[in-house]
């Protein structure tokens, strides 16, 4: 049996196949464009990298504070000694050491925080601030800078450690109050105050 195909019918089938191919191509292009736009407009790579850096800084800062908080038998921790030896001066990194903000002739010496920053943070390009925070007689939280290196970036992390001070550790409480502003929270006991050491770290 012979089937005759007329030219008009062949043209109709050809047009249908061409139209189907065109529609399929448009659909594929639309899918590709949508996928590219969805991935390119969302900064997944940058966010993941920032989160990774922040996690590293968080761990590093907490390890530093934990190390300085270690207390040997009948000895104060290095972190507590930094607070007890503080006279209220704010120090700023000058490229080679920590100078007083008020006088370049005064440098930070015998500071465990300063030493650990010079050993760990500075060689890695990590900027850092340290604030001592406490509660005054009126129940208001007071914060004063110990080491200040500028305003933190948006990706900065904050770690902290509380240090309990007693009267016998402070020694001359009157001088300590005048120098630091940290008051005796309880005059009826040996408890003096709690100082929260707040460390802020960020990449330069």
Cross-sheet strand order for the largest sheet: 4-3-6-5
User: Span between N and C termini?
Assistant: 85 Å
**Percentage of residues in strands:** 15-25%
By secondary-structure content and strand pairing, the structural class works out as alpha+beta
Give the domain tally. Answer: 2
- Contiguous low-pLDDT stretches (5 residues minimum) are 38-45
Q: Could you give the count of β-strands?
A: 6
Largest sheet: 4 strands, antiparallel
Average pLDDT rating: 84
**Which term fits the overall shape?**
elongated
Helical element count? 6
Helix content: 40-55%
User: Taking Cα atoms only, what radius of gyration do you get, to the nearest Å?
Assistant: 32 Å
- Written as H for each helix and E for each strand, in order along the chain, the element string is HHHEEHEEEHHE
InterPro entries: DUF7288
Pfam family, one: DUF7288
């Amino acid at each position: 049996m012979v089937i005759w195909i007329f030219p008009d019918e062949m043209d109709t089938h050809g047009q249908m196949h061409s139209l189907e191919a065109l529609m399929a191509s448009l659909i594929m292009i639309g899918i590709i464009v949508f996928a590219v736009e969805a991935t390119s407009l969302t900064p997944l790579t940058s966010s993941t990298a920032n989160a990774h850096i922040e996690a590293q800084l968080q761990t590093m800062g907490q390890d530093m504070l934990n190390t300085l908080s270690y207390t040997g038998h009948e000895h104060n921790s290095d972190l507590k000694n930094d607070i007890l030896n503080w006279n209220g001066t704010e120090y700023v990194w000058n490229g080679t050491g920590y100078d007083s903000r008020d006088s370049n002739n005064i440098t930070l010496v015998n500071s465990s925080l300063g030493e650990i920053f010079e050993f760990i943070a500075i060689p890695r390009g990590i900027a850092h601030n340290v604030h001592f925070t406490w509660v005054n007689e009126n129940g208001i939280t007071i914060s004063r800078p110990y080491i200040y290196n500028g305003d933190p970036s948006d990706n900065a992390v904050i770690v902290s450690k509380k240090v309990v001070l007693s009267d016998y550790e402070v020694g001359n409480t009157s001088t300590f109050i005048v120098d630091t502003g940290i008051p005796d929270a309880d005059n009826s006991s040996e408890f003096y105050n709690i100082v929260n050491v707040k460390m802020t770290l960020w990449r330069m």
